[in-house]
Design a protein that fits this description.
single chain; 203 residues; alpha+beta; Rossmann fold; two-stranded parallel sheet; two-stranded antiparallel ribbon; globular; disulfide bond; Sulfotransferase
Length: 203
């Protein structure tokens, strides 16, 4: 990390920190004043998205269903598969709350980041104690991507959109598989809503 000077904020973005057991203690030991922003989305959609990304790199992997279940006939979910495990947000947050109070966290809705990017970015700016500079005038919705993009900045010829790896079409997953995963995540989601004081509307 570069040294943070007066009036500066140093930011670092590593999604795996939230699910890495050792991360909270290490970050606490580095700086207990660290503010933590966690972007979460429906864990079922997140698992399918994770699988889609892996599939694009390795088309020979087993089906989503084969990886998600230890036993399909009993409906037993395989929580050792990282695509499933990452979405058990309450468990990961428990680990972080041993070191940081809830006031150090901002939980950003991945769904609202798509439907109302300016609103969520407003919350981020408030949380960081920044002036609200990024507003809805900075975004437009890209129909092809299915995501909002940043309008081109002054002096630039093209808008900024998420890369090719974002907005891929998901493979078709059987409705019963999705329903079983929704049932599996429901109690964890409810606990996460209670812990954060935020209902993300996944259920």
């Amino acid at each position: 990390m570069p040294r943070t000077l007066e009036g500066q904020i140093t930011m670092e973005k590593t999604p795996s920190y939230f699910v890495t057991k050792e991360a909270p203690k290490r970050i606490y030991n580095m700086s207990r004043d660290t503010k933590l922003i966690v972007v979460v989305r429906n864990p079922v959609t997140r698992a399918i998205s994770d699988y889609t990304q892996t599939l694009s790199k390795n088309p020979t992997i087993p089906s989503f269903q084969a990886l998600a279940f230890k036993n399909i006939s009993t409906g037993l979910i395989d929580t050792t598969w990282s695509a499933v495990r990452i979405g058990i947000y309450a468990k990961h947050l428990d680990n972080w709350l041993q070191y940081f109070p809830l006031s150090k966290f901002l939980f950003v809705s991945g769904e609202r980041l798509v439907s109302d990017p300016a609103g969520e970015m407003g919350r981020v700016q408030d949380f960081l104690g920044l002036e609200r500079v990024v507003t809805d005038k900075h975004f437009y919705f890209n129909e092809t991507k299915g995501f909002p993009c940043l309008k081109k900045p002054e002096g630039s010829s093209r808008p900024r959109c998420l890369g090719k790896s974002k907005g891929r079409p998901h493979p078709k997953i059987h409705g019963q598989v999705i329903q079983r995963l929704q049932e599996f995540y429901r109690p964890f989601n409810m606990k996460f809503y209670q812990m954060t004081g935020q209902d993300f509307g996944w259920d």
